[in-house]
């Protein structure tokens, strides 16, 4: 059980997830109360992709099974971040995320689209493409109040071309499916 301190008042706080299991939550001062989102996140890993065991803390990295040992091959990184923006401030968050991508690679052509996931959550897609590089980056942001989940696809151009020739999903298409099927 978590103890919550609101000024002089200390309250215990418990919550139950969708499965009815008790989970601890946190509320510090007057911040927005949120249950840990990892209880709900769900997405499918495309066939032919597998998780890298040495992924960074706080996220997961997937690579195509055939290129697990190749350091510069295509990959899909998945992570969740909190923000200062509510869903009503979506445009501001979109601007901030776009600015961040432009700042990371000022020579890239950056394009964006907005759509929805199958669960009707906001899906913001940013593509950063620098023709001088052997890869391009595609970011799929699923947004809700004060947080987003991101599928960052780094697509190797040669791997994508081979996938098209073999009539299988490119890394971009695999990432798009993961993002489209994502549910909180």
Largest sheet: 7 strands, antiparallel
Oligomer: single chain
Summarize the helix and strand pattern as letters.
Answer: EEEEEEHEEEEHH
In total, the number of strands is 10
Q: Domains counted in the coordinates: how many?
A: 2
The fraction of residues in strands falls at: 35-45%
Low-confidence stretches: 1-39
Could you explain how this protein is built, in words?
It is a single chain. With about 180 residues, the chain is of the alpha+beta class. The protein has two domains: about 1-35, no CATH class; about 40-180, Mog1/PsbP, alpha/beta/alpha sandwich (Protein Transport Mog1p, Chain A, 3-Layer(aba) Sandwich). Helices cover about 20% and strands about 40% of the residues. The chain is built from three helices and ten strands, in the order ββββββαββββαα. It has helices at about 90-105, 155-165, 170-180; strands at about 1-5, 10-15, 20-25, 50, 60-65, 75-80, 110-115, 120-130, 135-145, 145-155. The strands form two sheets. It has a seven-stranded antiparallel sheet with strand order 4-5-6-10-9-8-7, with helices on both faces. A three-stranded antiparallel sheet has the order 1-2-3, with no helix packed on it. Strand 4 (about 50) and strand 5 form a beta hairpin. It is globular and about 40 Å long. Residues about 1-40 have low confidence and may be disordered.
What secondary-structure arrangement, pairings included, does this model have?
Layout: E1 2-6, E2 9-16, E3 22-24, E4 49-51, E5 59-64, E6 75-82, H1 90-104, E7 109-116, E8 122-129, E9 135-144, E10 147-156, H2 157-165, H3 171-180
Antiparallel strand pairs: 1-2, 2-3, 4-5, 5-6, 6-10, 7-8, 8-9, 9-10
